Amino acid sequence: MPPLIASGSRNLGGTCARNVVERGGKVVLCDSVSMKDAGEELQQSLGQKDFMFVPTDTNVTSVFNVCRLSAELMAKNSPDSNGQRGVIINKSHRLAFNSSLAPYSMSQAAIIGMTLPMARDFKDLGVRVNSIATGFYRYQIPFMKGAQFQKFLSMMAFPYSLGSEDTFYHLCEKIVTNPYMNGEVVKLDGAVNTSFF
């Protein structure tokens, strides 16, 4: 069964899709209808043989439903030597832990809150569930320049830089290949101080 990447025609999801296909895998990518052009452009770039774009509506409820339905499909896979049939990695945001941006923070916290209960619920299926709470990426703040941008970078503990799509994919790869990692939320944020938000 090919990996399913939900909500990621560009940036993090797009990078993951490219890496999977370039390494000989196949990908099904779901994203909102508003991202249809970007998804189809990625499909044309990667080829229809190894990549399929499906326009959908993605939100917190959708994250739950995608996980639930994906686990049901993964349960039909043949188990590996560890009894594993699949891996789910959800993406959340660092703002879930410390922010006054209530609606966004709550939606991200909901994704984090699903992680451990889902990992326990799916144990008999042989499906692991982990989440990555990302920091900030350049595509999220394209309007910041000069002194304003440098001030933003000063919120990072170290390194003084924004996240990159490659570091996100690298962590996804490590989660997939580490069979003992389950029910965890990993912060990939450069130890950013989000108390300003």
TrEMBL record:
<dbReference type="GO" id="GO:0016491">
    <property type="term" value="F:oxidoreductase activity"/>
</dbReference>
<protein>
    <submittedName>
        <fullName>3-hydroxyacyl-CoA dehydrogenase type-2</fullName>
    </submittedName>
</protein>
<dbReference type="InterPro" id="IPR002347">
    <property type="entry name" value="SDR_fam"/>
</dbReference>
<dbReference type="InterPro" id="IPR036291">
    <property type="entry name" value="NAD(P)-bd_dom_sf"/>
</dbReference>
<keyword id="KW-0560">Oxidoreductase</keyword>
<dbReference type="Pfam" id="PF00106">
    <property type="entry name" value="adh_short"/>
</dbReference>
